[in-house]
Amino acid sequence: xxxRPSTAxxxxxFTQSSPSLRPNxxxxxGISVTSSSPTGSRxxxxxxxxxxxxxxxxxxPRPKAKDxxxxxxxxxxxxxxxRFQDKGCAFxxxxxxxxxxxxxxxxxxxxxxxxxxxxxxxKKTISPGAAxxxxxxxKQNHSTGLQHGFENMGLGxxxxxPTRSRRRANKMKTTANAAMNAYDFTVGAPVNPYAQTGxxxxxxxxQTYQHPLNYHLYAPLAPYPQKLQPFQKNIHGFFLSDNLRxxxxxxxxxxxxTLPAVSxxxxxxxxxxxxxxxxxxxxxxxxxxxxxxSWAYKAFSSEDGNAYALRRLEGFRxxxxxxxxxxxxxxxVLSANIVTIHDAWTTTKFGDSxxxxxxxxxxxxxxxxxxxxxxxxxxxxxxxQHQPTGPIVPEQVLWSYIVQVASALKVIHSAGLAARxxxxxxxLLTSKMRIRLNxxxxxxxxxxxxxxxxxxxxxCQQEDLTQLGRLMLSIACNTPSAVQYPQKxxxxxxxxxxxxxxxxxxxxxxxSTKNIDEYVKSIANQAFQNLDSALHYEDSLESALSRExxxxxxxxxxxxxxxxxxxxxxxxxPRWSETGDRYYLKLFRDYVFxxxxxxxxxxxxxxxxxxCLNKLDAxxxxxxxxxSRDSMNCFVVTYKELKRQVESCFQDLxxxxx
Length: 658
Known about the structure:
Elements: E1 32-33, H1 53-58, H2 74-78, H3 95-107, H4 128-131, H5 140-152, H6 165-178, H7 242-255, E2 269-270, E3 273-278, E4 294-301, E5 307-314, H8 326-331, E6 341-347, E7 354-360, E8 366-367, H9 368-373, H10 395-414, E9 427-431, E10 434-437, H11 442-446, H12 454-477, H13 486-496, H14 499-510, H15 516-522, H16 524-547, H17 551-564, H18 581-593, H19 606-618, E11 623-627, E12 633-638, H20 639-654
Parallel strand pairs: 1-12
Antiparallel strand pairs: 2-3, 3-4, 4-5, 5-7, 6-7, 8-9, 9-10, 11-12
Helix pairs in contact: 10-12, 10-15, 12-13, 12-14, 17-20, 18-20, 19-20
Keywords: ATP-binding, Coiled coil, Cytoplasm, Metal-binding, mRNA processing, Nucleotide-binding, Zinc, Zinc-finger
Domain C3H1-type: 67-96
Subcellular location: Cytoplasm
């Protein structure tokens, strides 16, 4: 009698009681599945003892061994094919044959089996004593207690009770006559299953184990790309769009931009701010708006490390220290369309007497003067050969500007202040159709007399509305000189824009609007349209953010793999990363990143990588097969077991830090 080879085990390989085995290369063709963790030593199963013919004939007959030709090959079950099918593999490669044989064996009758004869049931008789017994009546305390439990749930009238079945029948007849159909009945108070104490027959106790969420499934949020073909879906659907990513990266690069200290003539620091970078596009002095030459810088704060924009007024001398305290009131004015001011102080580090204001820094921002009237305007004026049939600047853009500036003015006027900087050069376009009022509070410091009486404040607020009308008049006509010819400008607006926009700009420009509240009511319909557009844009940003939701989790998981895989030595063991549970993680890394196709070409499939890593992080019960690099040994494991091994190995590495 020859020895039988050990068969592959399909149980989980992660048991402490199983012996340690290395890949067995002495077996025949095919892949052998082991059920133990590799420890570096090679062991073979002990051979079965040979039995003599006398002992075999005297003992009980040995069960007949299962024919290998009727056993389905594991390669067919796992891969769907067996590359040793025509090279001597003794297992069955037809997955349908076993089902047909098993089904045919169960479905046929055996002519040699005995016929079925039902047994005669015994006759049931009632004793004379039991016939005279009283009828059964349930105990009152049991029915009352059960009924009381249902009444607490609000179902006391709908639970069967033998003591009031007749009364319930009469009530049901009355309800059926009054209802529109037979199913119209009234239930008591709402059911509260959490209010019950003990075990209830209808509400089973909550299970202690809950299956984890399917974190490996990417569910995109609305809005969705419209009418995409299957071949149009690629890896970019998992991540941020290229345009949005590039815009954010440009803003981050502009924020971190600095100047060499050798070539800079600016002071190294001012108060808590350092590393000053000029933001002005021209080095020519201009005192058109504030009456003093002003300069803009970007600087970093040494307190919080954030970047801020500094506005410096050259040659200003503060006469009264109390005039600068108005900045404290401006710090409390918070609006989405206002650049927040943080601090103000006087300094002589620039070589003269200057006052500096610190604001929030919005990188890559442009003023409305640069956007519409600069060298490369957003809406260029047409040439004589190409005269437009419609307006140069779209009406939706004008309404968006009006609504946003009006929103900022309403917040400022409600605080008892006035903006006084409604100028194209002092309004920033920070992002897509997003404008903010800049340099608020400067006029209140350099001209403090305008804030000392309520009458002067109201006059400044009225001037804000007039400046808004001039701003929109020049942008609608796409020229800053439109305010010099108001009659012709209004005629142009009347020909190319709606009546509401024409009247709105006219009332602002002529001063017919008394206060901001009255003006906001007149443009309420446009404000709702602008709000709807803003919400749509918010949805698109949230949808883009959802694509980056899982990246942080996957990075942490990859960092753990980097700590464990290919570690040269740990705890004086140079083979730590090649033994024990670490060997499974090494094979899993090969399964994810080092797979090859049938032509031995590398498989570079990002969807496969993302799916495997998310399943591992979620710890699902899905099984995978990890094959050794010599293709002579494999392990069938689950993601849940692999996750447990990752956490265990990472905890071992973390012990040295405690």
